[in-house]
Structures are given as structure tokens and as C-alpha cells.
Amino acid sequence: MPANLVDLLSEYGFSPVKKTATEWASPCPFCGGKDRFQIWPDEGEGRGYYWCRQCDAKGDGIQFLRDFADMSYGDACKRVGVTPVANLRAPALTKKKAVEPFEPVRPDEGAKPQLDTAKWRARANDFVAWASEQLLKAPEQLAWLAARGIDAGSARRYRLGYNPGEKGRNCIIRPRAVWGLPPVKRKDGKDKQFWLPRGIVVPQLSGEDVQRLRIRRLDADRQLFRPEHKYHVVEGSSMDVLWLPCMNPRPEQAVAVVVESELDAILLHILAGDLFHCMASMTSNIRRLPVDVYEQLQSCLCILVALDCDAAGADGWPRWQETFPRAKRWPVPAGAGKDPGEAFSRGENLRLWLQAGIPAGIRKAMRTGQSPEMASQEEGRDEKMGPVTYHGIKLAENGCPTPPPEVLQFYAMWREMPVVYTRFTDEEGNCIGFDWSCDNKWSARNPGKFHEFLLFRDAHNIIWEWLSLNPCNKVTDQNFLNVTW
Fold first, then answer.
1. In CATH, which of 2.70.70.10, 1.10.443.10, 3.60.10.10, 3.40.1360.10 is domain 242-361?
2. Which of 96, 193, 342, 475 has a CA between 20 and 30 Å from the CA of residue 79?
3. What ranges in 324-371 are assigned the alpha helix state H?
């Protein structure tokens, strides 16, 4: 009997979950990812279509049966209920490659003996100070950073800058010796010059000293010259990762998030630096980590690996999985773009996204100030400490949370509409995604009501905090107020 993709996955034990009227989600049969395997069963004239946002596996029902069930092309077509095409062969799934873990390295292992380090750092420090002042005079660049969640005050705090070029050119050219670099000859025999392209200047600091300079080139300049060269690492720079430590350090509760771009790491540090260490790898294919960063990551209770949502990001994940048992693949939510910067520009609440990635026991330990072990054993509240609050949610004398006014107003709105909130969890009970759905017929009869409901939700973070206390994975107006501490 013919079967669609949802039926096939169910037969093989993957339990797809319906997300919208046309889309389903499931654990990935190929990489083991928990919720990034998207399914559209009605696509492809009945063959369906799937795509894993984690490992980039993709295909239709025929491809799934050939790769996962090892069926012949003819048998797979028969099972799906389509007529085989003569002489057509679907590509076989490539075998998983062996992955080497990260290699921790000492800082001096990447030293450049021909570089005059003192001269380079002096020039770099002066350049960063100058570029920081130029950024304050560049409203267009300030607006570009603000759209990525980095306002003028934050730009100064992280010492971001702008190189506008000089003398009408979109770059600055200097003799290499000025920056302490050894001479290099070009193919034509002339001396190679030192190039600083126009763009956003992103320094990596060690105390007050600049260790690395990377320049995010303007899109207009890339259209004219080297379009693939989006980020320029200034020659002589350290190639270590960017590590922004948690601003409220508790070694026994340390968690970290890993992204590719330095600007994304800065954005997340602004939004959640009181909870997370933030690291920028600069590339998805990183193989070596500074030994101090390696040791910091080893001590973390949870590492959210938020590499870009593309094939390169998926390829870079296995090394994290191989090296750090507490690492979790945590790309930005579906439909929010490929990285945190894009997700922010689309209105995604990135702090809540990060908090949702922390296992429940660690989240409780972080908000109560206890060790994870104590948090799992502790019940109720400490009578000596008086009333307990969590992000503004107070506990009544019986230990139950008291709904704040915004939550009660949201509840009153919810009672008037058929809305269901669904929380998706992994085998350990950790939240890995969520969905809000409303009856289509009701929504058509009441245009705009569901949208107003969601706008009110997003305007009050306390509602999300309240939902996090609800033990149910399916919440309606009937059980919305039934939360536990």
C-alpha cells in the first residue's frame, strides 16, 4: 500500500510531529538530530520532501527508502506509489566520515618569528582608537550595527570601529615595515604593500592590547573587488578564537554559546553575557583551540553550538560532538535566518532562545544560585529568605507562583480563542523547540485576533517566563495557569 513520508518515518520509529498544516518535524534518521529534520509530505506529487537543517540530508520518499531502508529504486517507487522512470538512479547516501577531536594548542605555537610584535601592536592599538572615533562620525555604519543589536554604546564598549579609507580611496595603504611586517615581493618584483580595506573594524583584545584585527568589508566594495572576501584578517593578527567571558561568572554553573562571527558573539554577549560565555570561531571548520579556551569549555555544564544554519555549519558540528560530551547543536530557530544577526533583525528573542537551550536542571540552578546537584534535590523555598521571586513572578505562601497582571491579561485573551502552545522536548526532557497554533476556521472568522495575541505575548517577557514553569508540553487556556516551581 502506498505511503507518504510521514507514514514511512512512523513505520521506522521516528514519530514525526505536526508543526503546521503542511509541515512536520522529526528526529533525523541520518545524523540523529532531535528536531531539525523537516518534512513536507504533500510536496513532489506525493513523493514528499525532507531536509535536515543539521546534516543537510535532503530528498523525497524514494530517496529516504533507498538511503535508510536500502531499497532498490523500483521497490522504493512502488512503496511510495509512483511510476519508476527508466534508467534513473538516485544517489546513495555518503558514509559518515571519521572526525578528529579538537587539538588544544599553546599561545606561542602560532608565533610569527619575523613579525615585530611590539610595533604591530602599537600600530594596531592606535588604529583601533582612531577607527572607534570614525565610527561615531558614520551614521550609516552605526545604523547597520544597530540593526544587528549593537548600539553606539555597545560598539564603544567592545571597541568596534570604522575604517572609511583615505584620500578618496576605499582603503588605507602603508609600507609593510610600518606595521612591523617583513618585506614580501609581488610576482612583478615590486614590494607588496600593507592593505587595510574600508569597513567595520572588529578587534580582539587581551586586556588593553589588540591581538587581532578583522574588518567586515562593505557590500558595495565587495561588488567591485573580491566579492568572496567578506572579512579581512589584518596580516600579523593572532588567529585565536574570540572568547568573551560571562559577566556574572559562577564556575560551578558555567554555560557557553559558540557562533562563527565575532559580531554575533558580541550581540549574544550584550543580550545574555550575564549567563553565557560567548565564543566566535570565525569559521565552521575550526580544528584547534587555545588551551585556556579548551579548558574553559571542558568545565562548562552545557555548550550551545550555534554554527550557521548551512551545510558548512552542519559539517562543523561533529567535531564539537566528538570533543565535548556536553555540547548541543543549537542553531537559530527555523525561519529566523542562518545566524544570530539575521535572527535578531527578524525580531527573534535571542535571550529566550539561548535560555531554552540550557537543560532544565541547570536553568533552575542558575536562577536559584545553587549547584545543579542541590537544585535537583531542593524543593519549595527557604523560609528564612522570605518570599521568592523569579523574574518578577512571586510565590504565594503555599509555594505556588502567583500570576502577574500581564499573565492574567494574557490568560483572559487566551480564553477567547482556540490556541494551543506545544513544547517539543528530547529524551531527557530538555526543550528543543515550540509551536503556537490556532484553529484556521476560527482565525478566518476573526482576522487579526491571533496576531494581536502573539504581539501581546512578545511584548511581555514575563509571559515566556511563566510558560517555562508549566510542566505540560501541550498548553491551552485550560492549563495555562497550572504552573509549578
1. 3.40.1360.10
2. 96
3. 340-345, 350-357, 360-368
Q: What is the CATH number of domain 113-233?
A: 3.90.980
DSSP 3-state of 207: coil
**Nearest CA among 391, 385, 327 for reference residue 364:** 391
Q: Which helix (H) or strand (E) holds 144?
A: helix 139-147
Start-end of CATH 3.90.980 domains in the chain: 113-233
The answer to whether residues 282 and 262 touch, using CB atoms and an 8 Å cutoff, is: yes
CATH 3.90.580.10 assigned to 5-80: yes
CA distances, 4 to each of 17, 169, 241, 410, 460 (Å): 14, 59, 45, 39, 41
List where CATH 3.40.1360.10 sits in the chain.
Answer: 242-361
Q: Residue 447 and residue 442: Cα distance in Å, rounded?
A: 9
Helical axes 350-357 vs 262-272, angle rounded to 10°? 80
Q: What is the Cα–Cα distance from 56 to 314, expressed in whole angstroms? A: 7
Task: Output b/e per residue, 425-434; b: 16+ Cβ within 10 A.
Answer: eeeeebbbbb
**How do the pLDDT tens digits run along the chain, 485 residues long?**
677 888 888 887 778 888 877 788 888 887 666 777 888 888 777 788 888 877 767 788 888 887 777 777 788 888 888 776 544 444 444 444 567 888 888 865 545 568 899 999 999 999 999 999 999 999 999 999 999 999 999 999 999 999 999 999 999 999 999 999 999 888 888 889 999 999 999 999 888 889 999 999 999 999 998 898 999 999 999 888 999 999 887 777 789 999 999 999 999 999 999 899 999 998 888 889 999 999 999 999 899 999 988 778 888 888 998 999 889 888 887 677 889 999 899 888 888 888 888 876 677 667 665 554 444 444 333 333 344 444 444 544 444 566 777 888 888 889 889 999 988 877 766 666 778 898 888 888 887 888 888 888 888 888 887 888 788 888 998 888 876 54
Residue type, 206: S
Q: Where are the alpha helices (DSSP H) in 33-116?
A: 61-68, 73-80
pTM higher than 0.85 for the full model?
Answer: no
Rounded Cα distance, 425 and 432, in Å: 5
d(CA 270, CA 154): 8
Distance CA 402, CA 418 (A): 24
Residues in the chain: 485
Q: Where in the chain is the domain with CATH 3.90.580.10?
A: 5-80
